[in-house]
């Protein structure tokens, strides 16, 4: 039996969470077209034969502008040292940016083996993929253990990732029971589902200004009740999330409840309240209360 940790890193919005969900064949990491969607490390587990692969989805590595951003980047950087292998994910349809180079600079600070994953390869010709490999060598270096073109959205190239990861599994014991696909607590999954629906249904600055907190849980034989606070930073944002005649908050609740019921296998009653907490992303006390260890 073998197992190991594989860290998924990259700048924001390159497809790390989409790839994570394909690798474990479960909906775990929340998906959005907004950058900065993932705020914490999320472990997803896949068992194939005698091998247990523990993939770690991380926040996008970036230069932070507030305490929450600092926590997110530090969390991603910590994962570099803890991993047996780093998967450095690039968007193959975009030129390698200073943001990608910033990620590379941090990878170079650790001794962990690293492979480059070129995402969205279905939108590239074979020649463009070869040109991208040359660009990687010129701008990011040539000491990667492999360069693998994939398309996370459709699962193209996933088997090549498993074949590579298998070579770097370092432990002779499994860390998790066979039926686990994550070690994330149920309440944390509930919070992430609600936050995802807000991300998908709002725009502009709203997604980045939202925090979600469960304030009460009551489980009865046939139903579980959740009382949830949604925090924003300005009164105008509160009005947007509630929507005209409460339409948007109702839609958030309906979509969240359906997905949570599918995840935990029981009926859910979800009550959502929207509250203003000015500049919460810069408030150390509030962030620590939400579980961000600064």
TrEMBL record:
<feature type="binding site">
    <location>
        <begin position="119"/>
        <end position="122"/>
    </location>
    <ligand>
        <name>GTP</name>
    </ligand>
</feature>
<dbReference type="GO" id="GO:0005886">
    <property type="term" value="C:plasma membrane"/>
</dbReference>
<dbReference type="Pfam" id="PF07650">
    <property type="entry name" value="KH_2"/>
</dbReference>
<comment type="function">
    <text>An essential GTPase that binds both GDP and GTP, with rapid nucleotide exchange. Plays a role in 16S rRNA processing and 30S ribosomal subunit biogenesis and possibly also in cell cycle regulation and energy metabolism.</text>
</comment>
<dbReference type="GO" id="GO:0043024">
    <property type="term" value="F:ribosomal small subunit binding"/>
</dbReference>
<dbReference type="GO" id="GO:0000028">
    <property type="term" value="P:ribosomal small subunit assembly"/>
</dbReference>
<dbReference type="InterPro" id="IPR030388">
    <property type="entry name" value="G_ERA_dom"/>
</dbReference>
<comment type="similarity">
    <text>Belongs to the TRAFAC class TrmE-Era-EngA-EngB-Septin-like GTPase superfamily. Era GTPase family.</text>
</comment>
<keyword id="KW-0699">rRNA-binding</keyword>
<feature type="binding site">
    <location>
        <begin position="10"/>
        <end position="17"/>
    </location>
    <ligand>
        <name>GTP</name>
    </ligand>
</feature>
<keyword id="KW-0694">RNA-binding</keyword>
<feature type="region of interest" description="G2">
    <location>
        <begin position="36"/>
        <end position="40"/>
    </location>
</feature>
<keyword id="KW-0342">GTP-binding</keyword>
<keyword id="KW-0690">Ribosome biogenesis</keyword>
<dbReference type="InterPro" id="IPR005225">
    <property type="entry name" value="Small_GTP-bd"/>
</dbReference>
<dbReference type="InterPro" id="IPR027417">
    <property type="entry name" value="P-loop_NTPase"/>
</dbReference>
<keyword id="KW-0472">Membrane</keyword>
<dbReference type="InterPro" id="IPR015946">
    <property type="entry name" value="KH_dom-like_a/b"/>
</dbReference>
<dbReference type="InterPro" id="IPR004044">
    <property type="entry name" value="KH_dom_type_2"/>
</dbReference>
<feature type="domain" description="Era-type G">
    <location>
        <begin position="2"/>
        <end position="178"/>
    </location>
</feature>
<dbReference type="GO" id="GO:0070181">
    <property type="term" value="F:small ribosomal subunit rRNA binding"/>
</dbReference>
<feature type="domain" description="KH type-2">
    <location>
        <begin position="202"/>
        <end position="278"/>
    </location>
</feature>
<dbReference type="InterPro" id="IPR009019">
    <property type="entry name" value="KH_sf_prok-type"/>
</dbReference>
<dbReference type="Pfam" id="PF01926">
    <property type="entry name" value="MMR_HSR1"/>
</dbReference>
<keyword id="KW-1003">Cell membrane</keyword>
<feature type="region of interest" description="G3">
    <location>
        <begin position="57"/>
        <end position="60"/>
    </location>
</feature>
<dbReference type="InterPro" id="IPR005662">
    <property type="entry name" value="GTPase_Era-like"/>
</dbReference>
<dbReference type="GO" id="GO:0005525">
    <property type="term" value="F:GTP binding"/>
</dbReference>
<feature type="region of interest" description="G1">
    <location>
        <begin position="10"/>
        <end position="17"/>
    </location>
</feature>
<feature type="binding site">
    <location>
        <begin position="57"/>
        <end position="61"/>
    </location>
    <ligand>
        <name>GTP</name>
    </ligand>
</feature>
<dbReference type="InterPro" id="IPR006073">
    <property type="entry name" value="GTP-bd"/>
</dbReference>
<keyword id="KW-0547">Nucleotide-binding</keyword>
<protein>
    <recommendedName>
        <fullName>GTPase Era</fullName>
    </recommendedName>
</protein>
<comment type="subunit">
    <text>Monomer.</text>
</comment>
<dbReference type="GO" id="GO:0003924">
    <property type="term" value="F:GTPase activity"/>
</dbReference>
<dbReference type="GO" id="GO:0005829">
    <property type="term" value="C:cytosol"/>
</dbReference>
<feature type="region of interest" description="G4">
    <location>
        <begin position="119"/>
        <end position="122"/>
    </location>
</feature>
<keyword id="KW-0963">Cytoplasm</keyword>
<feature type="region of interest" description="G5">
    <location>
        <begin position="150"/>
        <end position="152"/>
    </location>
</feature>
């Amino acid at each position: 039996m073998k197992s190991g940790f594989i860290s998924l890193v990259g700048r924001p919005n390159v497809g790390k969470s989409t790839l994570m969900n394909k690798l474990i064949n479960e909906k775990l990491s929340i998906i959005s077209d907004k950058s900065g969607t993932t705020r914490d490390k999320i472990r997803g587990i896949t068992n194939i034969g005698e091998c247990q692969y523990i993939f770690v989805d991380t926040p996008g590595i970036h230069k932070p502008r507030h305490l929450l951003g600092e926590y997110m980047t530090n969390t991603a950087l910590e994962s570099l040292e803890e991993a047996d292998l780093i998967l450095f994910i690039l968007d193959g349809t975009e030129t390698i940016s200073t943001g990608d180079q910033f990620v590379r600079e941090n990878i170079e600070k650790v001794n962990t083996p690293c492979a480059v994953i070129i995402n969205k390869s279905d939108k590239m010709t074979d020649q463009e993929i070869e040109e991208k490999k040359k660009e990687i060598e010129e701008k990011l270096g040539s000491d990667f253990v492999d360069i693998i073109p994939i398309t996370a959205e459709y699962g193209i190239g996933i088997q090549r990732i498993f074949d590579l990861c298998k070579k770097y599994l370092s432990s002779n014991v499994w860390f998790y029971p066979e039926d686990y696909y994550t070690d994330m607590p149920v309440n944390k999954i509930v919070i992430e589902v609600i936050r995802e629906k807000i991300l998908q249904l709002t725009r502009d600055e709203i997604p980045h200004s939202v925090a979600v907190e469960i304030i009460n849980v009551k489980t009865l034989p046939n139903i579980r009740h959740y009382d949830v606070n949604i925090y924003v930073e300005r009164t105008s944002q509160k009005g947007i999330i509630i929507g005209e005649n409460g339409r948007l908050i109702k839609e958030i609740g309906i979509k969240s409840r359906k997905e949570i019921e599918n995840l935990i296998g029981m009926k859910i009653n979800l009550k959502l309240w929207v509250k203003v907490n000015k500049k919460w992303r810069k408030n150390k006390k509030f962030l620590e209360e939400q579980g961000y260890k600064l």
